[in-house]
Design brief:
Blueprint: H1 8-14, E1 41-43, E2 46-53, H2 70-74, H3 81-94, H4 99-113, E3 118-124, E4 129-133, E5 139-142, E6 148-151, E7 162-163, E8 168-172, E9 177-181
Antiparallel strand pairs: 1-2, 2-3, 3-4, 4-8, 5-6, 5-7, 8-9
Helix pairs in contact: 3-4
Length: 187
Amino acid sequence: PIWADLSFTDLARVVRTQALLAAVRDATLSGADAEAAAAPFASGAWLFSHNGAVPGWPGALAPLAATLPAADLLSLEARNDSAFVWALVLARLRAGDAMGQALADTVAEVAAAAPAARLNLLLTDGVTVAATAWGDTLWYLARPGGGTVVASEPYDDDPHWQEVPDRTLLAASRTDVLLTPLKEPLT
């Protein structure tokens, strides 16, 4: 946790970014993977987090394992629903999908395999934040003068917080917020 990370204060002093992703995860069952099982997951410029859970893990998503290259499966740092969903998103990003498309297609695929899944996915490249609201709450606060906060729920009483409708893709930058309905998965 951030409050126990001895290097956080020093690191926060020198890190600069246009988009930041912070995650608190408690839906993942405890296991041997420890910190590797906790978001954010990272690759290159991308940071990813999953707020939710996939019921029936791992069996519900076992058929989707065949869609990933063996090297991606073998190199997973953690064996939980969030790490696997990240692998699905990352494969799409590496294939050239835009951030929003990678999230939308992954949500559709996972929701088809596990219809009761809660799939609020968050992804940033350091400039833009893309997120899905699927079965769980998601809110955003567009600040006057620039800057947008995306969160599971409002953390203060600012009246400008806006709830993202369920089954929606959000793309946010410092100056813009775009909401796009997500398609229901084919079953």
